[in-house]
Design a protein that fits this description.
heterotrimer; A mainly alpha (304); B mainly alpha (361); C alpha/beta (502); A: 304 residues; mainly alpha; ABC transporter involved in vitamin B12 uptake, BtuC; 70% helix; globular; B: 361 residues; 14 helices; 71% helix
Chain lengths: 304, 361, 502
């Protein structure tokens, strides 16, 4: 029982950055832009959040710094792919390389050679504290509560039920039609990419501001790529993407707990760590066959 | 409509200048003079024999990963997994390298190189099959296999291959006969650079002069048009993916046999991703890849010397790479936009942007 | 005097695309309550000038006035606020969304998405103009005619006073055309102004109050809608008669079928069959014309015969070699030459003319994998001369004009002396010279004994070139006749799904 409660709590916790990242990537892709800058955006969010919180002593300012970095990263991606019409794959990889480099560069400048710096991570909140044993499932960080109770429903509503969401979906599906209907295609894509970038950066900041309280190199470790996969797995729907994030996180959290079981202890833990990535690829192989991509996916829009 | 043959080299020079202008910001923040810094990055490494040779050492792995990426991109196959494929080549080389002690290098080295190439190709196989059979985006699968490959390396180093004597996470040293010979005394320059140049030359010949190369380019520029002309696009993609993986695998062999002599956790500081920078900067042509790799090798050597002499963190090298990649694709796209061609299928692809000029290599 | 100002007025509109002058100082106006047709051949510049009025293309020079006031129109948003609406040839609809969502798109203030208002607008269009459309349906599931109605309702719901329709009848069957014209009449009766772009004389005369004719980017003149058909034709093509004259070669086709199609079925979208039970023979020295409104299975038929699509059942054989399920290479080896409707996508635009000319048969131009650049070039020079292609061997195909691209495709196919030629819309979008050239080449091949299957939406072309005709409707053959027995009216009925010929 404790094992299950602990597992569920860990699943929610570990899913949090993926939820932010997946929702953010969904916004980018629904507007027609594959944002492979996600890995670097999460990384930069993690670093900017940490460095700011460390310098100011304020987690809130740290979070704000991450959001600003995410907005900027989304704007650069939009400049590349919307304004210049540059190749989306290469632009995203370039953004990731540049942002990781910039974060490590700044890390080196600010924390040169010293010992690992720490901040006091955000506290765990549990509004259901009185429910006994099972309430431990809800021992979660504020950013986790915000992700599941605020961001996911709000992002869903904005995308599926608001006129702005209609415009995002339209420019991602058929920008010519959206343009002819008077929608500003470039502006819509900029906004979608910037909102998405902010969410990705918050997902990255979750590691430093909540989970770890410190910044280490390779802190994102491919989770941005996982989010890109989860978006496809979720067929560009917020809800399905979140389910995918929870499944990944369940496998991830499970493998951690498997290590203490007899028989698994002899396996190098890195092999178990690889398991969630392989599960995502397997899930894609099963569910991602010939899925319908957004109509204008990867296509820059220019009037002729 | 013809574009001057100097258009592309000039465009790359502009990209480099714009990149330097943008990265002046971080350099100023680091408290250094940008002009002085670029001198240290670009010029200083060219001034001594030792650093000149070090440039070639640095250029070796990224020339190979650059060629790997360029072959795939030319076919329209988005292999972003050169990093993982390189690591698999390294694993294969480190394994085979310990087993070929009794063999003459003339036999041992080819076995190891082929083994590494097969390792890289094997790592590229699953994403390629998923793409061809089920239409699953190779970008995501090749990307996801990169952390998996790294975990595999770490798992081996912390498990079966841990150094039994020191307990360090390093595999046993490979046999002397499996080590790449150095080409010049008292330098680290090894056989790998020749291997890289051979690979680039062969790839150039195949792409530019053979029917298979023309089919590959046609498939990359217009899959529908290629299929219509009777080209088996799936088989072409599979071939390009496997060759790409194999070349990346050879990069891993080269690092193991030429530099580390064993498998280590820090074997690749992202050579696979740098390969994307090299390929793009080289506008997906093989001569371009060779030149771009040497240029980035120059920057890498310069960055580490500038870290010592000017106190600029060497991580600036990655910033420059990222910005360079962005400025290059942006300028390529802007050039294509200006040509005012009606939007066709290849709009926005690097392949199309490059080939807008009719480049043949 | 307010009413005397035209609802929309264009003055001196000029637009260049590279060397091509698409519009050369065009003046055009449409009055309140009038249908003003813009007539011209493909490529005359009709669509371009109206895209400029709607802000989809920017003019190099000229002025747009709305109700007498000069307006700067940089985007459709500007045009919409000026009261201009346009139904483009490719509908500007988002397929996976509902009709209501499409109506709501781009009209929001703030975040609120008011689908109820969109439904009300659809209902009011239905009440006022009899345009019936269910706002809850997904656009992708609607027929082309229904989608066009959505487009018109969309423009009306933006309170447009000028409605531009670009070739609105091209995708409609005669019945739907009549319904459209009824709608247009009720719109002009309500005081709207309509610009009707077309190249079909009869329709233009049926609906228009005035006609302006464009030729090669220039305004030839403006005439009353009742102007004689011959006179309009003369203005349009610059000579009194037009159409195609069949070369009187006298040679009758042999009775030997080369291409035999038997019981062909092809699956289409939404689980509906694209082709059902199609059987036909094409004999040596014969052109079999395939008539039908686009979207009735022609594309799929050509794709099967080109090796680009696998039929669900049935057979298509060339002298005993099965094409059904074969790949493009096998189809070509069976002696089939293919000239598909999408000529741009069937070549590699970024590769040179010389490479494109050999791409189907690379093995003939190499030894041991290496390609022989000298022979490829010589081959290209020879074909460029023979087929009068206005380009150099090293020019990327994408830089060529439409006519020259079609000649490259023609040269690639015909230089292999195919026994069977499958050709679709061979002259769509080509100028008069290129059109005549392409048609004469096909007739020459027929005279040489090739079996030709010709798909075209241009009835004049079909009647002029074919020996026999079949009519496709919803994927079935609904009529078959010798061309001598064909009359356009009966063909029109068959194409509209009316009745079945013996």
């Amino acid at each position: 029982m404790i094992f299950v409660i602990d597992l569920l709590a860990a699943t929610l916790r570990n899913a949090t950055p993926l939820v932010y990242g997946t929702v953010g990537e969904t916004y980018a892709e629904r507007s027609g832009v594959l944002n492979l800058g996600i890995e670097g955006t999460m990384y930069a969010g993690a670093f900017a959040g940490f460095a700011t919180a460390w310098a100011t002593g304020s987690l809130l300012l740290g979070l704000l710094a991450a959001i600003v970095v995410g907005l900027a990263a989304g704007a650069v991606m939009a400049l590349m792919t919307v304004t210049f019409g540059a190749n989306q794959h290469v632009s995203g990889i370039g953004l990731t390389i540049g942002l990781i480099g910039l974060s490590e560069f700044a890390n080196r400048l600010i924390f040169a050679g010293g010992e690992l710096q720490r901040i006091e991570p955000m506290p765990i909140l549990n509004p259901f504290g009185g429910l006994g044993e099972i309430s431990a499932v809800f021992d979660q960080y504020a950013l986790t509560w915000i992700a599941f109770l605020l961001i996911v429903p709000a992002a869903w509503w904005l995308l599926q039920r608001s006129s702005f969401g209609l415009e995002i979906r339209a420019v991602g599906e058929n920008p010519e039609a959206a343009d002819a209907a008077g929608v500003n295609v470039a502006r819509t894509r900029y906004l979608a990419l910037m909102i998405g970038g902010a969410l990705m950066a918050i997902g990255g900041a979750f590691f430093t501001l909540a989970l770890l309280g410190s910044f280490t190199l390779d802190i994102i470790a491919g989770r941005g790529w996982v989010c890109v996969a989860l978006v496809i797995f979720g067929r560009w729907r917020i809800g399905r993407g979140v389910i995918g994030a929870l499944l990944f996180s369940l496998v991830f959290s499970l493998q951690f707990r498997l290590r203490i079981l007899p028989g698994f202890g002899e396996l190098p833990f890195e092999l178990l760590l690889a398991l969630p990535y392989l599960v995502v690829i397997g899930a894609l192989a099963l569910s991602g066959r010939n899925v319908a991509y957004p109509g204008a996916y990867l296509k820059p829009y220019r009037r002729t | 409509m013809r574009v001057s043959p100097w258009s592309t080299p000039l465009l790359i020079v502009y990209a480099i200048l714009i990149t330097f202008a943008i990265t002046a910001g971080p350099i100023l923040i680091a408290g250094a003079n940008p002009i002085e810094a670029y001198g240290a990055f670009v010029v200083v490494p060219l001034t001594s024999q030792f650093t000149l040779l070090e440039i070639l050492v640095s250029a070796t792995p990224i020339m190979l990963t650059g060629a790997a990426v360029a072959v795939a991109f030319r076919a329209g196959y988005w292999n972003i997994g050169a990093e993982g494929q390189l690591l698999l080549g390294a694993i294969a080389a480190a394994g085979i390298g310990t087993l070929v002690g009794g063999l003459h290098p003339v036999i041992a080295l080819p076995i190891m190189i082929v083994g590494g190439a097969l390792g890289g190709a094997a790592w590229a196989l699953a994403p390629a099959l998923l793409r061809i059979r089920f239409g699953i985006d190779e970008v995501v699968t090749t990307l996801l296999l990169n952390p998996v490959a790294l975990l595999l390396v770490n798992g081996l180093l912390h498990g079966p291959w841990r150094d039994p004597v020191t307990g360090f996470p390093e595999s046993p040293r490979i046999a002397a006969s499996a080590e790449f010979p150095t080409l010049i005394d008292r330098s680290r320059l090894h056989l790998g650079i020749l291997l890289a140049l051979i690979v680039v030359t062969v790839a150039w010949y195949v792409l530019a002069r053979t029917a298979a190369g023309l089919r590959l380019r046609a498939a990359g520029l217009s899959p529908h048009g290629a299929r219509f002309a009777g080209i088996n696009v799936s088989r072409t993609l599979l071939g390009a993916a496997l060759v790409s993986g194999a070349i990346a695998g050879i990069a891993g062999v080269s690092e193991v046999a030429g530099i580390q002599n064993r498998l280590t956790a820090g074997l690749s500081p992202g050579y696979g991703y740098t390969g994307i920078v090299v390929a793009t900067l080289g506008t997906l042509t093989m001569p371009g890849v060779a030149i771009a790799a040497i240029f980035l090798g120059d920057l890498t050597v310069g960055a580490s010397s500038a870290a010592r002499s000017l106190g600029i963190p060497s991580q600036l090298g990655a910033v420059v790479q990222g910005v360079l990649l962005l400025t290059t694709v942006a300028l390529l796209a802007l050039r294509r936009n200006r040509a005012r061609r009606p939007a066709d299928g290849s709009a926005g692809s690097v392949t199309g942007d490059v080939a807008a000029e009719g480049t043949a290599g | 005097m307010i009413d005397s100002a035209p609802a929309l007025e264009l003055r001196g509109i000029t637009k260049r695309f590279g060397d091509l002058v698409a519009n050369d100082g065009i003046d055009f106006d449409v009055r309140r309550g009038e249908v003003h047709a813009l007539l011209g051949e493909n490529g005359a510049g009709k669509t371009t000038v109206m895209r400029i009025a709607y802000g989809l293309t920017q003019a190099d020079a000229g002025e747009v006035r709305v109700e007498g006031q000069p307006r700067i129109i940089r985007s459709p948003r500007d045009a919409i606020s000026a009261g201009i609406g346009m139904v483009t040839q490719h509908f500007a609809l988002v397929g996976p969304m509902s009709v209501a969502e499409n109506l709501a798109l781009g009209r929001s203030r703030g975040l609120r998405l008011d689908l109820a208002a969109a439904r009300r607008r659809a209902a009011s269009a239905s009440d006022r103009f009899g345009i019936r459309i269910d706002p809850s349906l997904r656009v992708a599931n609607l027929s082309v005619g229904q989608q066009q109605r959505v487009e018109i309702v969309k423009a009306l719901s933006r309170d447009c006073r000028v409605l531009i329709l670009d070739e609105p009848t091209a995708v409609l069957v005669p019945d739907e055309v009549n319904a459209l014209f009824a709608t247009l009449r009720s719109l002009v009766a309500d005081g709207l102004s309509i610009v009707f772009i077309s190249h079909k004389l009869a329709e233009v005369r049926a609906i228009s109050d005035r006609v302006s004719v464009l030729r090669r980017g220039k305004l030839v003149g403006t005439a009353a809608g009742s102007t004689d058909e011959r006179e309009l034709a003369r203005m349009m093509v610059g000579r009194p008669t037009f159409g195609v004259e069949r070369v009187a070669d006298g040679a009758a086709p042999s009775a030997k079928p080369i291409l035999r199609i038997r019981g062909l079925h092809v699956a289409g979208a939404n689980d509906l069959p694209a082709i059902s039970d199609v059987s036909a023979d094409v004999c040596a020295g014969e052109i079999l014309g395939v008539a039908g409104v686009s979207g009735n299975g022609q594309t799929e038929l050509v794709e099967v015969l080109s090796g680009m699509r696998r039929p669900t059942s049935g057979s298509a054989a060339v002298s005993g070699t099965e094409l059904a399920g074969a790949d493009p290479g096998q189809v070509m080896r069976a002696g089939v030459g293919r000239i598909p409707e999408d000529r741009h996508a069937s070549l590699i635009g970024d590769l040179s003319v010389a490479y494109n000319l050999v791409l189907e048969r690379l093995d003939d131009f190499g030894n041991g994998g290496r390609i022989d650049e000298r022979r490829i070039r010589a081959h290209a020079v020879e074909l460029i001369r023979r087929f009068d292609i206005r380009a150099g061997p090293d020019d990327p195909v994408a830089t060529l004009s439409g006519g020259n691209i079609q000649k490259v495709l023609l040269a690639r196919v015909l230089s292999r002396d195919p026994r069977v030629i499958v050709v679709s819309q061979p002259t769509r979008g080509l100028d008069v010279g290129a059109t005549e050239y392409v048609r004469s080449q096909l007739l020459e091949r027929r005279a040489d004994g090739a079996a030709i299957l010709l798909v075209s939406e241009d009835l004049d072309e079909l009647i002029a070139l074919s020996d026999r005709l079949i009519v496709l409707y919803e994927g079935r053959i609904v009529g078959e006749m010798a061309v001598a027995d064909a009359d356009p009216e009966q063909l029109g009925m068959l194409m509209a799904g009316r009745g079945r010929a013996a």
